[in-house]
């Protein structure tokens, strides 16, 4: 069974084509700058040279069409025709409380996704456009939705509710939803495999650290808490997001600066975080370089980030009654040895410590804690696309 995995952003489409007989990637690529001048498709077939296709990509439908043409091209294609694609799995950011697992796309599901646009206005619309484009271009091929929020639907009520009048939850769905669920799910499963243990016996703290960052408490295979909330703004200091702040700051700033709701939203989501603190960049690599060069604000941004992560790890160990493993994943988590060291320096009370020699690695799945540590520390590269492909195979196996 060959499964196409699609992840549509507002102006981009990431994709991978899997052969699920051995879970190998036949091709992957990226469509960039959709609807913007200079749009391009970069297509990487397995075992063949990369193909770069410059085109006027006005919308997601045209982008998906170019992806399908690249996959079947005589020179850089990997399948004979689109008939070889048995199913399509889509990453969808927000499903609210509507779905606790991946689902087959139906008209009822599409209606539910549309109803969630208000909670994810930047993400759900392009996700929906990708589904509609595939339905148009490869009609009859089953499609699935795999949700960022689904993994966290196991959180207990006392963990996901805010201290607001209960009617706010009943009327508007104001609660913690959490994100990066597919990543947290995958790396917790891989950690159990690396430990040669059953996931249902383990308490794992998963740290998805990138420009967007979140931490999850995974107890016996289920998410019981996570740092992102009603939106991805809550939780850690991130690339451009402020993370958790005193809510009273918002009306205070609006009055002082004369900001509208849209302006304060942009201020908190796009101008804050390590970008706002450092004044350098939202990219941790740039900030680390600036810190080494003696930039005090860059150093402060790094210390703030590490401190917040360490606090969440400690609180989630308390929430689960202990921890068996800590996992670092995503761009920063997988590649920055110095940040992992900063975060873990102070976690010795949990019975763990990083081995500096083991920690000197990038993007490789391995344990990096000292021998005999009570709490194991791992680097595990995330693979959200594989989770989507696996879920899609399970759902569609009896349909194709």
From TrEMBL:
A GO cellular component annotation in the UniProt record: cytoplasm
Keyword tags: ATP-binding, Cytoplasm, Kinase, Magnesium, Metal-binding, Nucleotide-binding, Transferase
Annotated signal peptide: none
Recorded metabolic or biological pathway in which this protein acts: Metabolic intermediate biosynthesis; acetyl-CoA biosynthesis; acetyl-CoA from acetate: step 1/2
Binding site for substrate: 91
GO molecular function: acetate kinase activity; ATP binding; magnesium ion binding
Chief location: cytoplasm
Binding site for Mg(2+): 7, 384
E.C. code: 2.7.2.1
Catalyzed reaction equations: acetate + ATP = acetyl phosphate + ADP
HAMAP family (UniProt xref): Acetate_kinase (MF_00020)
Described function: Catalyzes the formation of acetyl phosphate from acetate and ATP. Can also catalyze the reverse reaction.
The protein, known as: Acetate kinase
